[in-house]
Specification:
The structure is a homodimer of 401-residue chains. Chain A contains 17 helices and twelve strands. The first copy, chain A, is an alpha/beta fold and 401 residues long. In chain A, the strands form two sheets. In chain A, strands 4-3-2-1-5-6-7 form a seven-stranded parallel β-sheet, sandwiched between helices. Chain A has a four-stranded mixed β-sheet with strand order 9-8-10-11, with helices on one face.
Chain lengths: 401, 401
């Protein structure tokens, strides 16, 4: 199967929609499966436009809404793709024989098992779902080594590193440096961050993304998760993965070689670049993006991250150093805490306080089976939920004083 | 012969001395020949320290001074290397069988024939003498294609491009971008440049180099010569070779691929980096240079070059487009004009006026033989000298008014 026969897990999300735009631009990409969650309306439109063999969505309810939508759009049931649902449906989309590349772009833990199955089946993985590597990098990398599956990162930073490393040997790499925009609170005081509103936190300076990842960018947890992701993708320990704050997001990441040379990848901030790269690698093909105009941008700045104002980054390094199930526990805790912040239940800095308590309390087990990883995930979620509640109780008590 | 058996043409110059430091640092480099001009004192010290089999210098007079120096340093004549002189001596150093890599670091046209002979003999060339490619790129590249000689650029910009291109195909390159510090007159007005003193022109902001190349940096002719050099090294036409002014000289150059991705090489400004790279390629080895600290540097800026204040850059593109012997003629003209400026005979902007007149008047012949190239060089030198004299006469007449 060529790498341009693709299945998209998470086709109605931001990466999914951009993948379809890239497919259209390239022309010779064959969309064999589209898997979405609950957005039956958009999935139906995508099916009509791209004619996949298989479509997957969240559940039976969504399947019937999808069929209604397809009919409404004038598709005759003879032209319907095979429609499946649930995790089983995602796994089917991820492993079908016609598929060469799986674009893994679901949000959160749901993409985990299907992506692992795709790796085991030797598919190329265009990986946008960083949680899968954070939770179970050990399993993923071992599976890829076994099947020969290539994992091509779609996260702009890791995609940049992949590009910087094309002509280099890992044995000649001194360290990799992930760039971070610094988020909306880069120049804010600790006090301002303490009182940050949801609206302020969602106002990301350079990238337009979903809510969860935007909050993670505001707390630098996103960069922490990327450090863990980089550890698995490039096989380096945490002390050889650095982060530098670069507000313009023009340099997407860098590699420092043993001779001190630094290779950087730069570009415009559009995720279609990394998606296309992952679909066409090792070829590079023209795309419709505007060229990078450094003279117009004029200035690139760099500063060290401030771990005092952004403790989540240090917490991620601690989880990576603890190893085993600790990153999975951190990821789960962070999902719960970010959700609680988005729901107005806790303040922004409370996210890092909860994550820190959880990682420090976590007793890691080896993350060499799906069961252990999922158990750590479940346990961390319920502990984080309890910490959210405790924090609310404390805050309420303080407010009463 | 391994690439670490080296002959250095121009061992007492800045690149030559740095090459010996790199050789010492690497430990396993065997210096088989040292060729210098007239600096018998330094050459003698280098011979005592590095024990080459062959030493070459300018002429018989220098040979006897060298022997005296060697005796003064306590070397017994039985330990003397074979000592040769003249172009023949340089050619011998460049082609001796024991030599795997020739570091071509003489200044100006003198290194031309020996470097060509080394290419014909299939040696790896660590090329620091850009005049050789500017004058006779066609001959050099054809000879390298014939013998299989590798040409590894030591100029920091071209070395950077070589690094950026390690993992890329030339067919997937959209353009290359050479960075320029902008020199000491980057922020000066046309009038200030018109009245620039020698001292101001020699005050280069980021690199410490010889006088000729420092003046070339002040007029941007250095970048123009580098555009021509890049044309031959990477096989791209002038319209795919751009220049961007980057005063911090941290980004040494960049490659833009067809997908819009930009790969940049960065590092500290020390020519030992590029020299070591050329000696050890494709390996990268640790060196003693400090790491690049972007957070301390904090800011990188970029601007388009101003061809009105720095017309030499446009003149170089015109010479490249004319082709054939035009770049050789420009190089000769520029050497004469810079010498005249260094001697206080003409003003700084007069260099570009002379170069411009010469290139526009030049009727290029094909540069497919050494004779034609050298004839163009001679002719351009005498025409440029006449233009220098004419300019002095005019200036004197104006002063009399």
């Amino acid at each position: 199967m060529t790498s341009r026969n693709i299945s998209i897990l998470g086709s109605t999300g931001s990466i999914g929609c951009n993948t379809l735009k890239v497919a259209k631009h390239l022309g010779d990409v064959n969309v064999v499966a589209l898997a979405a969650g609950n957005n039956a309306e958009l999935l139906a439109k995508q099916i009509v436009e791209y004619s996949p063999k298989l479509a997957a969505c969240a559940d039976e309810d969504c399947v019937s809404r999808l069929e209604t939508e397809l009919e409404r759009l004038g598709a005759s049931s003879a032209d319907f793709p095979e429609i499946v649902c649930g995790e089983e449906g995602l796994v089917k989309a991820a492993t079908m024989e016609e598929c060469g590349t799986v674009v893994s772009a679901t949000v959160g833990a749901i993409g985990f098992v299907p992506t692992l199955r795709a790796i085991e089946a030797g598919k190329r993985i265009a990986l946008a779902n960083k949680e899968t590597l954070v939770m179970a990098g050990e399993l993923m990398i071992a599976a890829a080594a076994g099947s020969g599956a290539e994992i091509l990162p779609v996260d702009s930073e890791h995609n940049a590193l992949h590009q910087c490393l094309r002509g280099e040997k890992m044995s000649e790499v001194r360290r990799i440096v992930l760039t971070a925009s610094g988020g909306p609170f880069r120049t804010k005081t600790k006090e301002q961050i303490e009182n940050a509103t949801l609206e302020e936190a969602l106002d990301h300076p350079t990238w337009d993304m979903g809510d969860k990842i935007t909050i993670d960018s505001a707390t630098l947890m996103n960069k922490g998760l990327e450090v863990i992701e980089a550890h698995w993708l490039f096989g380096l320990d945490g002390d050889r993965i650095d982060v530098i704050v670069h507000p313009q997001s023009v340099v997407h990441s860098m590699v420092e070689l043993v001779d001190g040379s630094v290779i950087a990848q730069m570009g415009v901030t559009d995720m279609k670049h990394a998606i296309q790269y992952a679909l066409t690698y090792p070829e590079r093909l023209p795309n419709a993006l505007p060229p990078l105009d450094l003279a117009s941008i004029s200035e690139l700045t760099f500063e060290d991250p401030d771990l005092d104002r952004f403790p989540n980054l240090a917490i991620a390094y601690r989880a990576l150093e603890k190893g085993g199930t600790a990153p999975a526990a951190l990821n789960a805790s962070n999902e719960v805490a970010v959700r609680a912040f988005l729901d107005g239940r806790i303040s922004l800095p409370e996210i890092a306080r909860i994550n820190g308590k959880l990682v420090d309390a976590h007793e890691p087990e080896s993350a060499d089976s799906l069961e252990k990883v999922l158990a750590a995930d479940r346990e961390a979620r319920s502990l984080a939920e309890a910490l959210v509640e405790a924090s609310r109780t404390t805050a309420a008590a303080i407010n009463r004083v």
